[in-house]
Amino acid sequence: MSFISLGLSGFFQRALDEQGYETPTAIQAQAIPAVISGRDLLAAAETGSGKTAAYVLPLLEILQSQDAPASNRAAVLVLVPTRELALQVETSIKSYSRYMPRRITSLAVYGGVSINTQMQALRGGCDLVIATPGRLLDLVEKNAVKLNQVRHLILDEADRMLDLGFAEELQKVLGLLPLQRQNLLFSATFPEEVDALIDKLLFNPVTIEIERKNKLPESLIQRAIEVDTEQRTSLLRYLLSQHSGDQFLVFVASKRAANNVAIKLNKAGFNADTLHGDMSQIDRNGALQSFKARQTQVLIATDLAARGIDIPLLPFVVNYDLPRSPADYIHRIGRTARAGEAGTAFSFIDHGSDAHFELIVKRNQLTIDREQIPGFERNSTPPPEALQPTKGPQPIKGKRKSKKDKLREAAERQKAAEEGNIWLAATRKNQG
Ligand code: AMP
């Protein structure tokens, strides 16, 4: 099966060749003809399935025969949960549309950076706007963009968007769109909130279910390594030196841990960088870009990097700290072994995370044998602090949050949400 046989014009072929796409993925094979035909679409698809091209390519095909949008208008609106995903989708659009006869304009808009540049870029109109909801509403308020000519709406990672508390903003955006439009909804999971959205949004959709929820690629090897808490950095160094030319994405529980581990690795001569929510947007983009360009060997990240981000040919993921939620375990390890490549996900299990790891395994219906690596064997008796049942940030003993603290945190959350700093908004909420 070829892309052209799905209804795409010949001018896409060169761009697809350059991307190394030989045949459409399963979701592309089903979605491309459906989207070109104008139908609404409901797709159960994980990142890694090729879902971006599954909607971007047919939309570009449609745009090719349409006029460019009027000033401050957009024809296609892609809503995404994070800035990183917005940028990634925009990059895909630019590469797929490179050889189209008609010039296509696209713009990623997200909070945490100056709004003025985005306002200017929208002035002449834009074929595709890829936006996080908060910043989009700010732009609407400033009259920088009007949504009354949007003909195609895409919700990418709808579950994640609702998880992050975007329900209200989403409703506001939907209220600004014309009734006549095509709606495409992509979601990895289908909690009740997403079901409600589907009912409201989609008209007689073509439904595509490519992968069972949480299905992991067969080429992904999961290894659970028992290790003492204080030996984890040495073990990480050992793994890095065992695979010296390869890149590692290492997940930790906090921004502080990210910085600490990065400092230790750099001291030991490894090229390590961090990615977390305390960094400026410019630094975050820079860290991700250098990692993608293979200029950095190790990226130490918080869960900010767990979802949606596509790092081609990433062979190793390490859970230095386990994720809090079993679902995040799947999202984290899914950064490796993408598009049929081999990949290994290591999880470090210290005494304090024994029970939590069992929970992750059970909830995700996994079978993972535990192992120890010679030279890094775990002590047979757990230290007293490891006998506490849960890990992760805990309220300081004897110090309950005062009402004032709670109010201050709520205000910070609100501010972060207004700035479009959704990740911060979400983590503060989880911790509060
Ligand atoms: P996505 O699910 O959109 O994040 O895509 C996951 C990865 O698969 C990205 O690196 C894409 O460039 C890649 N990809 C998408 N479609 C194809 C294809 N037809 N053949 C090979 N790789 C693809």
Written account of the structure:
By secondary structure, this protein is an alpha/beta fold. Helices cover 39% and strands 15% of the residues. The chain is built from 16 helices and 14 strands. The protein has a seven-stranded parallel beta sheet, with helices on both faces. Helix 3 packs across helix 4, helix 6 crosses helix 8 and helix 15 packs antiparallel against helix 16. The termini are far apart. The C terminus is likely disordered. The structure holds adenosine monophosphate. The site of adenosine monophosphate has 16 residues, from helix 3.
Question: Keyphrases for this structure?
Answer:
elongated, 39% helix, 15% strand, binds adenosine monophosphate, single chain, seven-stranded parallel beta sheet, alpha/beta, disordered C terminus, 432 residues
Q: Which helices and strands occur, and which strands form pairs?
A:
Elements: H1 13-19, H2 26-36, E1 41-44, H3 51-64, E2 74-79, H4 83-96, E3 106-109, H5 115-122, E4 126-131, H6 133-141, E5 152-155, H7 158-163, H8 167-175, E6 182-187, H9 192-201, E7 206-209, E8 220-226, H10 232-242, E9 248-251, H11 255-267, E10 272-275, H12 281-292, E11 298-301, E12 316-319, H13 326-333, E13 343-349, H14 354-363, E14 370-371, H15 403-418, H16 422-431
Parallel strand pairs: 1-6, 1-7, 2-4, 2-5, 3-4, 5-6, 8-13, 8-14, 9-11, 9-12, 10-11, 12-13
Bound molecules: adenosine monophosphate.
Adenosine monophosphate binds next to helix 3.
